[in-house]
Amino acid sequence: AAKDGGRNGVREFDPQMRAEAESRLRLEQDLRKAVEGDEFTLFLQPQTTADGALVAAEALVRWNHPTRGLVAPGGFIAVAENSGLILPLGDWILTEACRILRRLEDAGSPCHLSVNISPRQFRQTTFCATVLAILNQTRANPRRLTLEITEGIAIDDVHDTVAKMRELSACGVSFSLDDFGTGYSSLSYLKQLPVSEIKIDRSFIQDVDGNSHNAALVDIILSIADRLGLRTVAEGVETAEDRDFLKERGCAIFQGYYFSRPIPVDAFFRAYAPPALPENVQPRVEADAL
Length: 290
Ligand code: C2E
Ligand code: MG
Ligand code: MG
Ligand code: MG
Fold this sequence. Notes:
ten-stranded mixed β-sheet, binds magnesium ion, alpha/beta, EAL domain-containing protein
């Protein structure tokens, strides 16, 4: 906190606070250059059935920093949100995601794609028009696009939030309530927001098999979703035990390190949507397999 008793009664910040403020400012400047310089990339993490069949993927942004290497979103999304840089960055993410969606469809893959939308991005009055323009420009199928939102989006104005969701839903886009169960009034938002999917937060999934509290909560979340006719995605599934527990209780879709970490787009295509071979052409047998 600011200390009293500085020279001439001017409040002086302690050195640690100043250092933090300076490093935040530097990060913001770096981020601004990164947005202009195209330093971002999307990773894809598969969402599968219990048996590992691919249903969809979540797009997760990474910052390819010139000196720090790949930076995870935890290290910059909050700063992007507070500085407003999330707006150009969010547009880039949506455009890139829709291009990937188009590529998947062209490759004959039925894979859907989920994209995280930050509150500030969603609250823009032009949000719906932007999403529709990007879908149009990339020729991606809106029925394969899911927007992941959190309760934070609705806090200011539930009415406006619902109106935007309805507008996009009417065009085929669907919504998922991310990090479900971690907010202040998850059930109240679940009642009001027209989502078709909930993602059970990783904190409930972790060790769901060994932790009876988590097991009880996940059980209840799954039965609420079932009663409301919502699809459920479990995020952060790390072990076969977690997977088995969730499968037994009717969870539909699984995402987590047990199945796959988030991977670069090219690796994702190689693993899940390889280019179709022309007819009558047999795969070449590798020499060392003979
Ligand atoms: P989220 O949307 O809840 O994404 C899931 C996070 O859990 C990802 O972290 C993912 O890598 C991680 N995860 C998945 N499976 C496992 C697992 O089995 N174990 C563990 N320990 N972690 C797992 P990531 O990529 O670091 O993203 C963190 C958060 O940053 C996201 O949470 C989301 O809130 C935000 N974020 C990521 N990409 C974007 C984006 O493109 N736009 C916006 N606005 N936010 C994003
Ligand atoms: Mg998400
Ligand atoms: Mg989540
Ligand atoms: Mg989360």
